[in-house]
Design goal:
- With 379 residues, the chain is an alpha/beta fold.
- It folds into two domains: 231 residues, Aspartate Aminotransferase, domain 2; 124 residues, Aspartate Aminotransferase, domain 1 (Alpha-Beta Complex).
- Helix content is 39%, strand content 13%.
- It has twelve helices and eleven strands.
- Helix 4 links the parallel strand 2 and strand 3.
- The chain is globular and about 70 Å long.
């Protein structure tokens, strides 16, 4: 469909084309010097001691769980209001995801109070999700983790360029995980990144990323090593230099791109308040610096969401839903026997619709979206 206003759009130009062509001309396509440069630049951008690029965000989450030693019998607390990959990564290790509620309809991030209520002797980690690029209450969550000797994984898939108290999201916990999927603020098509300040965790992640091997093809091809050992049951979760070349250019665009997203969100707030006051807009009260990855809004209680979405479609506006709660999927229903306890999550999911947001969206397009919202509310 030819949308008048699409949900998202990639911010690509000649710089990305030139970067990819440079890799093609070099003759070295897999993980090598360009990936190393991308990792160094991402580490510098976030203030992390270590950054390791991987094949995708799900691989990052899986490796984080493995490196922290999660396994059968362990429980990991996380929100249900997330993409299913967060929970899948936990289950890949044999550990058990424990879904808890979010803070409120105003702040759609993991609730510290709900974390405390869900703790058991089997709890080994907390996986926070910085929904839409807005920070979880990391000081409160880290204090819970400290008191109970728990690891903290940050699912920062939405949060490139976001920060809390001047500290980048993804650098607060033991390991931070990013996604560079095609709709993310920084995209490589498919790709991801792991951050950690811990030298031992970084070494584990590096080994697990590439079959548990002690040296890489790049090392051997360039005379830095002649053989290798395999010291762990690893995976092929490597990224390649083609995608890393994209990532290096995209990283340079994050400050300006996120700034434009912020101004677009402010315009949405202004126009929705004036023209569609029935719509609730989460994250109105500032906490830290967001990356403004998506623009979630809440329809009035009792609204027919599918009818609203069809109304937006008829007006050429693509919208989405972030997210159907993980605990409602067939494969996860048994992991939430008391789903009614996820009261806020259930309410938000029933009402949430995601409006278009990307750096190149124009003020006129935002005005059209808001007009479509107002009209679709009263179909």
């Amino acid at each position: 469909m030819n949308w008048r206003v699409p949900l998202s759009d990639v911010n690509l130009d000649a710089a990305e084309i030139d970067a990819v062509l440079s890799v093609l001309r070099s003759g070295w396509l897999t993980m090598g010097s360009v990936t190393q440069a991308f990792e160094q630049e991402f580490a510098a951008f976030t203030g992390s001691k270590h950054a390791l690029a991987v094949a995708n965000g799900t691989a990052a989450l899986h490796l984080a769980c493995l490196a922290l030693g999660l396994g059968p019998g362990d429980e990991v607390i996380l929100p249900s209001l997330t993409f299913v990959a967060s929970a899948n990564a936990i289950r890949y290790t044999g550990a058990t995801p424990v879904f808890v509620d979010i803070e409120s309809t105003d702040w759609l991030c993991l609730s510290p109070q709900a974390i405390s209520a869900a703790l058991t002797p089997r709890t080994k980690a907390i996986m926070v999700v910085h929904y839409a690029g807005y920070p979880c209450d990391m000081p409160a969550i880290l204090e819970i983790a400290r008191q109970h000797h728990l690891a903290v994984i940050e699912d920062a898939a939405h949060a490139v360029g976001a920060a809390l108290d001047g500290k980048a999201l993804g650098t607060w916990g033991d390991i931070g995980c990013f996604s560079f999927f095609g709709n993310k603020n920084l995209t490589t098509g498919e790709g991801g990144m792991l951050l950690t300040h811990d030298d031992q965790l970084a070494e584990k992640l590096q080994r697990l990323r590439s079959h548990g091997m002690t040296t890489l093809t790049w090392d051997r091809a360039h005379g830095h090593a002649s053989t290798y050992d395999v010291v762990a049951l690893g995976y092929n979760y490597r990224i390649d230099d083609l995608r890393s070349a994209l990532g290096r250019v995209q990283l340079q665009k994050i400050p300006a791109g996120n700034a434009r997203r912020e101004s677009a969100v402010r315009l949405y707030h202004e126009l929705l308040a004036a023209q569609a006051p029935e719509i609730a807009v989460p994250f109105a009260q500032a906490r830290g610096q967001s990356s403004y990855h998506i623009m979630p809004v809440l329809l009035p209680t009792g609204s027919d969401k599918l009818r609203f979405i069809e109304g937006m479609k008829a007006r050429g506006v693509q919208v989405s839903w972030h997210y159907p709660p993980v605990h409602t999927f067939s494969i996860y229903k048994s992991y939430a026997p008391h789903a009614e306890a996820l009261q806020i999550t259930n309410e938000v999911s029933a009402r949430e619709v995601t409006l278009p947001l990307y750096p190149s969206i124009s003020d006129d397009q935002i005005a059209w979206v808001v007009r479509a919202v107002r009209e679709s509310l009263f179909i």
